[in-house]
Amino acid sequence: MTPTQTKRRLGLLSLVVSAGLVAIKFYAYHLTRSQVVLTDALESIINVFTSGFALYSLYLAGLPKDENHPYGHGKIEYLSVGFEGALIFIAGAFILYNATLGLLHPHPVARPDWGVLLLASTAVVNLGVGLLLVRSGKRLKSVALVGDGQHLYIDALTSIVSSVALVLVAATGVVRFDAGAALLLGAFILANGGQMLRRSVSGLMDEADTAIVAEVIAELQARRRAPWIDVHNLRVQRYGANLHIDCHMQMPYYFTLEEVHTQLHDIEELIRARFAVEVEMFVHADPCTFAACSLCLMPDCPVRQHPFQHEVQWTLSNAVKNERHHLK
User: Fold this and answer.
1) Average pLDDT, stretch 39-48?
2) Which among 86, 152, 284, 292 is most buried, taking Cβ atoms within 10 Å?
3) Higher pLDDT, 176 or 326
């Protein structure tokens, strides 16, 4: 099974599970008439919509590049996370409003035992499926699957809190535990929706993924060769699971075009081998100048003007700058 097929099957699993669990939660609300159970059920409705959109985004992200989308369709996964975050944010605001009314005007909770039983069972299922989606999403480099799995984690947490609230109501007879728990969950859901929106905007705006950039730089540094005098202006963009990388590499100016091509090809191949996703890499070759002699490790260089002093270690702080390195 290809990674794209695996993503789609996991997305379909999330959709089916979400639809089944939301039915169970609304049945629990029908039995209990509990504010916190209603909160849990409303939050779960979002799961159905977001799982459906995530499944569609995984289908689009798996389409090949075309003339209109030369970098592929992977950015749709960030849109999926943003759509999910927006719905969660709206649901959180609505839940806060209803929970406040319930706290001011509490009403009795019926059959809390059934509510606890049903909600606890949904929490177990959500935790299991959420764990599967997050692990698979990280392995397959799918932000849509990871986001969907994290949402199921949150759904499981809301079910656990709802169950605890029902237990407290049954044990103490204090009905305000019900609305109070709903109020806390609403605030938590609202904050989580905001975080997902921020993550979506960051991806759509090509915010630098410092972990990936640092990994690329570390790989170049670890496998550094003498002709690779200096690297700078290194940038990484993520398109769904795939990566687009470009940088400038300073090389001896007397190299033939064939020698430069061989070195650039080797750089691209070692980076592609490092990541288990599709990597599109463009390396721009800069000719060296005599100012770089003190940094250059080329043995028996026929044009060296200055003795070698020491090698500049490529790091996250210097390799991303659009300027050649020099000794201070």
Assistant:
1) 77
2) 152
3) 176
d(CA 206, CA 143): 14
CA distance 75 to 200: 10
Across the range 74-90, mean pLDDT stands at: 77
Crossing angle (nearest 10°) for helices 143-172 and 112-140: 160
Residue 328 is inside which H or E element, if any? none
Q: Following DSSP, what letter does each residue of 214-231 receive, concatenated?
A: HHHHHHHHHT--TT--EE
- Contact yes or no for 76/60 (Cβ under 8 A): yes
Q: In the prediction, which pLDDT does 147 show? A: 74
pLDDT at site 328: 46
| Averaged pLDDT, 84-109 | 77
Find the mean pLDDT for residues 60-69.
74
CB contact at 8 A, 250 and 153: no
34 φ/ψ angles, rounded to the nearest 5 degrees: -90, 140
User: Taking a C-beta distance cutoff of 8 angstroms, is the pair 56, 33 a contact?
Assistant: no
Helix, strand, coil percentages (3-state) for the chain, rounded to 5, are 65, 10, 25
HSE at residue 326, side-chain half, CA atoms within 13 A, is: 8
Spell out the domains of the chain, with CATH numbers in brackets.
3-204 (1.20.1510.10), 210-295 (3.30.70.1350)
Q: pLDDT tens digits for 103-162?
A: 777 777 777 778 788 888 888 998 898 889 888 888 877 777 887 787 787 778 878 877
Tally of CA atoms within 13 A in the half-sphere of 140 that contains its CB: 28
Per-residue pLDDT at 136: 86
* 180's tokens: 């109070």
239 contacts 209 by C-beta, under 8 angstroms: no
Q: What is the H or E stretch that residue 54 is in?
A: helix 35-61
